[in-house]
Amino acid sequence: MKLSVVMPAQNEEGSVAATVEGVMAELEREQIDYEVVVVDDDSEDRTAEIVEAIGMENPAVRCYRSHYGRGFGMAVRAGLEVFKGNAVAIVMADASDDPRDLVRYHRLLEEGWDCAFGSRFMPGAKVHDYPSLKLTINRLANWFIRVLFRHRYNDTTNAFKAYRREVIETIQPLLSKHFNLTVEIPLKAIVRGHSYGVIPISWTNRTSGVPKLAMREMGSRYLFIVLYVWLESTLSRGDYRVEAAERPSETVRG
Ligand SMILES: Nc1nc2c(ncn2[C@@H]2O[C@H](COP(=O)(O)OP(=O)(O)OP(=O)(O)O)[C@@H](O)[C@H]2O)c(=O)[nH]1
Ligand SMILES: [Mg+2]
Q1: What's the predicted TM-score (pTM) here?
Q2: I need a labelling partner for 212 at 20 to 30 A (CA). Which of 84, 134, 178, 219 fits?
Q3: Which domains does the chain have, with CATH numbers?
Q4: Ligand 1: which atom is nearest the Cα of residue 71?
């Protein structure tokens, strides 16, 4: 199974090389066939140049200039339209995610799960330097999502997840243009009937560059997309669901 890594990056010259090289090293060590697609839209720093230099040495890495306008959601969506693998993982370019977790995601997909999710809030997870206000908002948002969708998974809002190609087809058309895409993808995958495995993961706060998620502007957009998917799941009578697979829909590994 070929794994594509879609990595949105904007002004990440301080971390993109280490992130891409960390992913490359781990996937090569595990002999996983892969490509890395860094999706840049208008970085004003050396992000594109750095990725292109890595790509000269390793043709599995490329910098893709988004064919959409600016914004996290549009960058990820651009990447999801051009990846070539049978599975795709969305990985941040700020070195927050651990490439060893990427390998674990790949193994879950190989086992047959449609989606591989991580949780930073379960036994075995490691979280370093999570800003406290962000953490409070995160826990409230995930609690709200759990109550609404009646599932146990407690880290829906984290973008770092992996999916089989079929899932990316099932969840179309995507609506989110911003960070709210981060919840649209997993929630649609779940309510449309895909299976998912959950493992504990590590997360470390960025040490260079600036955060791009503006909480205040995003609140209503998150609520919109969460309620949209919830309305679909409660009122559409299964019109958008895939055939239910003959296996449990969720597994959690400690
Ligand atoms: N191409 C592109 N990438 C983006 C955009 N906004 C954010 N990103 C990237 O998306 C990833 C997540 O953004 P972050 O700024 O780290 O968001 P966050 O993790 O909520 O905030 P931090 O506290 O900084 O970690 C990073 O790799 C960013 O470079 C954008 O408008 N375009
Ligand atoms: Mg980040």
Answers
A1: 0.94
A2: 84
A3: 3-252 (3.90.550.10)
A4: 31
